[in-house]
Amino acid sequence: MSGVSSSTALSVYLSTIKDEQTQVSRYVASDTQLASTASSFTSTAATLTTPTAILSNYKALQVLTGAYNLSGQISQTAVLKDLLTQTADSSTSLVSETDNTDYLHFARATSDRNSQTASLGAPAAMSLVTSGASASSLTMQNTAWNLSGSQQTASAPGVQWSFVLNDGGASASIASALQSAAAATDSGATYSVSASGTVTASPGAPAVTTSTDSAGNTVYSLALATNASGAVTKRADIVSVKTAPAGPSGGATQLAALQGAVTAAGFDATVSAGGKFTVIDPSTNGTNTLARSFGTAIAVATAGTLDASGRLDLGQAGTTLSAGQVLTDGSTEIGTVKSVDSFGNVTLEAPAATTISAGDTIQVVTGLGFANVGTTMTATTAAAQGSRTLSLGKAGMGLQPGQIVTSGGVSIGTIGSVDGSGTVTLLAGSTQAVASGAPLVVLPAVSGGTTPALDDASNVKSIVSSYETNAYETQMGTEYPGMDDALYYTRTMGSITSITDLMANAKLLSVVTTALGMGSYFGALDYDQQVSLLTQKVDLKTMTSPAGIQQTSEQYLISKAASASTAPTGLVALLAGDATSSTDLFSLINGVSNPSSGVSSSTDPLLGLFA
Fold it and tell me: Based on the number of CB atoms within 10 Å of its own CB, is 379 exposed (0-12), middle (13-18) or buried (19 or more)?
C-alpha cells in the first residue's frame, strides 16, 4: 500500500506492541475462516500421530506452515516430509544443511516429545508430606546430567531439578536436597535453611543463589561445575514448592502446586484424573531434555543382600529396571545395572562395597523419581504368601497398574490391574502374607517413553497461537509496508544470541539490513562478507535489548515507508544521498555510524570487503 507516511506506520506500530495479543484475538474473531481452521486443527491434532496423517490433513498443514513462516511451501510435500521425518540435529538433515530457523522450529514443533509418566493413584487419596525432614519431592535430570564434565557446556549444561513440597516447614528437606546436590563436588558441604529461607553453608561449600520462578516458588541454585570462562556447565536447582497443608482434597492440592512448579521450570506437566503425572519435553528443547529411554523406577529390596558376584534380588520391582541405569541406596552409589532377569534379580557391573538388606529402598539416579510419595491403604481381607490378589476396598479403586505395593518398607508386588471393587491383581504372587487390616503403602511407578508432538496440548496451543499471530501480522503488512516483519522482529529478536543465529532467520536479517541501510546490496555479498559486515555494524547486546529492538523496528518502518513512496529508491537513492534514505553511499563506504540502534562505528572502508 503506497502513500502511508512513516509517522502513521510508527503510530500504528507503537499502538500494536502495547498489547498485540489482544489485537490478534480481535482479528481472529473477525475472520471466521481463520478461526475455523485453527479450531479444526486443535480438535484433530491428537489424532495426527504420524507424518502421513499430518501431510494428508490440509487444514493441519495450513496451521503448521503458517505458524512457522512456511505458508509458501505448503505444496512442497517432499520438503515438509523431510522436516517431519528427519532428526533436526543430524548433520545430514535438511535443517542442518539449510541452517534455516523456520525449518528448525517446524521440525521441533512436530517431533515426538520425550516424556516421563508416574502412576500415582487417585490424587485425593495420596499421602504427601509437606514439612519436616521427609517432605515429599520430585527429582528430575536432563540428558546432559550424566555426561562427563568435558561434554557439558554452558549452552547445554547438566541440570538436576529437585521439587520439594513445602507448606512452610520443609526447611530441613531443602537443606538435605542442597547437600545431596553438592555431594557431586566432593566438597563435604553442609547446609542449613531457616524458616524464612535463608541459607547457611559450611566453609568451602558451593555458593547458593536464590530466585523466584513464575509460579512464585523460591529456587535455590548451585553451580556444581564451570568452564574456563566461569560459565556454569553443571547446576542443581532446588525448588521450594509453595503448598498449603492437605485439606479435604488430600494430595490433589499438592500435586497441582507441583505441576505448576515443573511447568515454571520449562517443561509441560499434566495430571490426569486417575493420578498419572506426566512430564513432557517442551518444543524448545535447550537444557530441558529428558532422556528418551529412561525407564526410571523406585524399587524396594525384598530379600537377601548384595553378594560378591554383584547380584541383587529386588523382586518384581526390579523388573522395571534396565541395563545401564545407576542404583543408589540413599546417597551411596551401589553400582550400574548389567542385566535383569524376569524375576527382578539384578546383576551389577561393578558393585560398590556396601551392604543392602531386605527392606532397603533402591533408587535409580537418572530421570524422574519421587521420594516420600505414596498412598496409604489397609488390607480389607487377609492374603496368603503367593496370593495374586489383595482386597483393598474402595480406596484401592484409585490405584494404577505398575504401582508397587509395600508393607513395612518391603515390596509385596507390582499391580497388574484393579477391578471395580478395589481388588488388586498382582503381576506375580505376593512375596509375604498380608493380615486383614494390615497397613500398606503403594509407591509410584515411573516409566519413560515418548508423547506424539500434537498430542501435547501445550504444544498445540503454542502452534495455534503462532499461526494466529502470524496471520494477523501478515494482514497488518498488507496495510502498512513492513509492519508484519517489524512486529515479528519485536517478538523474536530478543532470543538471538549470535550473528550466525541472526543470519539463519531471513525475516530478522531483512529488518536489520534494511534498518542499517544495507538492504540494496547486502544480498549480493557472499556469506563470509555478510558475516564480516554484520560483525562490524551490529552490537547484538544493544540491538537485542528492549529499547534497541524497538528502535531498530522503527528505523525499519521508516525505511519501508520511504521505499513505498515516489522518492528514489535503492541505488539511485543511495547515490543521490536522498534525505529519506537512512544512509547514503558515501557513509556506507566510509563506515560512518548509522543512527539506528546497535550500529558500531568503523573506519574500515566497505570496499575493502571486495578486495
Answer: buried
Task: Give a yes or no: residue 153 inside a domain.
Answer: yes
Q: Give the C-alpha separation, 268 to 64, whole Å.
A: 20
Same domain, 423 and 547: no
The pTM (predicted TM-score) of the whole model is 0.67
User: Starting from the edge strand earliest in sequence, which strands make up the sheet with 345-348, in order?
Assistant: 298-300, 361-364, 326-329, 332-340, 345-348, 311-313
Q: Which domain holds residue 399?
A: 375-443
Contact (CB, 8 A) for 328 and 360: no
- Angle subtended at Cα 126 by Cα 120 and Cα 129, rounded to the nearest 5 degrees: 110
Question: In this structure, are 608 and 539 located in the same domain?
Answer: yes
pLDDT over threshold 70, residue 257? yes
Q: What is the pLDDT of residues 449-471, one digit of tens each?
A: 778 899 988 889 999 999 999 99
Residue burial 343-376, b: 16+ Cβ < 10 Å; e: rest? ebbbbbeebeeeebebebbbbbbbbbbbbbbbbe
For the chain, percent of residues with pLDDT exceeding 90: 44
* Confidence (pLDDT) at 314: 74
Nine cell digits for residue 148: 562427563
- The pLDDT value recorded for residue 608 is 36
Parallel, antiparallel or unpaired: strands 218-226 and 232-242: antiparallel
**Section 263-286 average pLDDT:** 83
Calculate the alpha carbon distances from 236 to 222, 229, 374, 492 in Å. Answer: 5, 19, 25, 29
- Cβ contact 582:560 at 8 Å: no
Name the residue type at position 113.
R
Of residues 332, 335, 298, 334, the one with CA closest to residue 318: 298
| Same domain, yes or no: 256 and 344 | no
Q: How far apart are CA 223 and CA 201, in angstroms?
A: 14
Give the pLDDT of residue 331.
Answer: 47
307, 185: one domain = no
C-alpha cell at 88: 533436526
User: 597 and 543 in contact (C-beta within 8 Å)?
Assistant: yes
482-538 pLDDT per residue, tens: 999 999 999 999 988 889 889 989 999 999 999 999 877 888 899 899 999 999 999
Instruction: Determine, yes or no, domain membership for 311.
Output: yes
Q: How many domains does the chain have?
A: 4
* Pairing, β 361-364 against β 326-329: antiparallel
Alpha-carbon distance of 318 to 299, in angstroms, equals: 6
Displacement of CA 503 from its chain's centroid (Å): 25
**Which cell goes with 456?**
501435547
Whether the CB-CB separation of 404 and 443 falls below 8 Å is answered with yes
Considering the domain architecture, whether residues 383 and 328 belong to the same structural domain is answered as no
Q: What are phi and psi of 451, to 5 degrees?
A: -120, 125
- Which among 413, 580, 490, 464 is positioned nearest to 24, based on CA atoms? 464
**Inter-residue contact 160 to 236 (CB < 8 Å):** yes
Beta-carbon contacts of 191 under 8 Å, excluding residues fewer than 6 positions away, are 175, 178, 179, 182, 199, 200, 201, 202, 205, 208
Query: What is the distance between the alpha carbons of residues 263 and 291, in angstroms, rounded to a whole number?
Result: 18
Cα distance between residue 204 and residue 270, in whole Å = 39
- pLDDT at site 112: 85
The predicted pLDDT at position 295 comes to: 38
Q: Are 319 and 362 in contact (CB under 8 A)?
A: no
Exposure string of 210-224, with b = 16+ CB inside 10 Å and e = fewer, is eeebebebbbbbbbb
